[in-house]
């Protein structure tokens, strides 16, 4: 399955945008990024954030050496004047994205993903958006299979009645 920005990152405009940190030069030995103004964003510290589900994400924080007087400041950062550009880099997330890109670039996997987008996703989208089926009301694998079966049967009956009306 793709990550939320997969399609966006495949576009030419995204790849050519000099202000996306994915397009910045990274020096592995020195552990720093280089911004479009040729300034270094060096590693400062590690940080952790918990989301509302209690999941902890670990980041590496990079900060620019000096953003004062930068001609690209308004395009590059929303930080207040006097503050430098910071990057929160999640190594695990970037590794997962790279693995997904590699898998989807394979011919066989890409073909399967292409079919899934047209065959499976619209059905679940319809279930969630139109039938408001977003959660199971039962527990246990058997009961969940039954409930999902009823929901999918409703989708199929709707399709059947639409076809027979024509």
Describe the structure.
The protein folds into two domains: 6-105, no CATH class; 120-165. It is 46% helix and 18% strand. The chain has seven helices and five strands; from the N terminus they run ααββββαβαααα. The chain has helices at residues 6-10, 12-16, 73-76, 91-105, 107-119, 121-129, 141-165; strands at 25-27, 32-34, 40-50, 56-64, 86-89. Strands 1-2-3-4-5 form a five-stranded antiparallel beta sheet. Strand 1 (25-27) and strand 2 form a beta hairpin. The mean pLDDT is 89.
Number of DSSP helices? 7
Largest sheet: 5 strands, antiparallel
Output the helix-strand order.
HHEEEEHEHHHH
Biggest sheet strand line-up = 1-2-3-4-5
Oligomer: single chain
Q: How many strand units? A: 5
Q: What is the percentage of strand-forming residues?
A: 15-25%
What gyration radius follows from the Cα positions, in whole Å? 23 Å
Would you identify the regions where 5 or more consecutive residues have pLDDT less than 50?
Answer: none
The rounded distance between the terminal residues' Cα atoms is 36 Å
Structural class: alpha+beta
Shape: elongated
The percentage helix is: 40-55%
């Amino acid at each position: 399955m793709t990550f939320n920005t997969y399609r966006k990152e495949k576009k030419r405009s995204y790849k050519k945008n000099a202000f996306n940190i994915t397009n910045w030069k990274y020096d592995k030995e020195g552990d720093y990024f280089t911004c479009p103004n040729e300034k270094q964003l060096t590693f400062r510290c590690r940080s952790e954030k918990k989301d509302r589900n209690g999941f902890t994400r670990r980041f590496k924080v990079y900060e620019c050496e000096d953003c004062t007087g930068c001609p690209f400041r308004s395009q590059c950062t929303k930080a207040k004047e006097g503050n430098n550009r910071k990057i929160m880099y999640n190594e695990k997330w970037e590794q997962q994205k790279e693995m997904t890109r590699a898998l989807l670039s394979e011919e066989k996997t890409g073909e399967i993903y292409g079919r899934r987008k047209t065959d499976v996703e619209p059905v679940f989208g319809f279930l969630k958006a139109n039938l408001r089926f977003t959660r199971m009301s039962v527990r246990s694998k058997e009961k969940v299979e039954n409930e999902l079966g009823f929901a999918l049967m409703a989708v199929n009956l709707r399709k059947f009645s639409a076809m027979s009306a024509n």
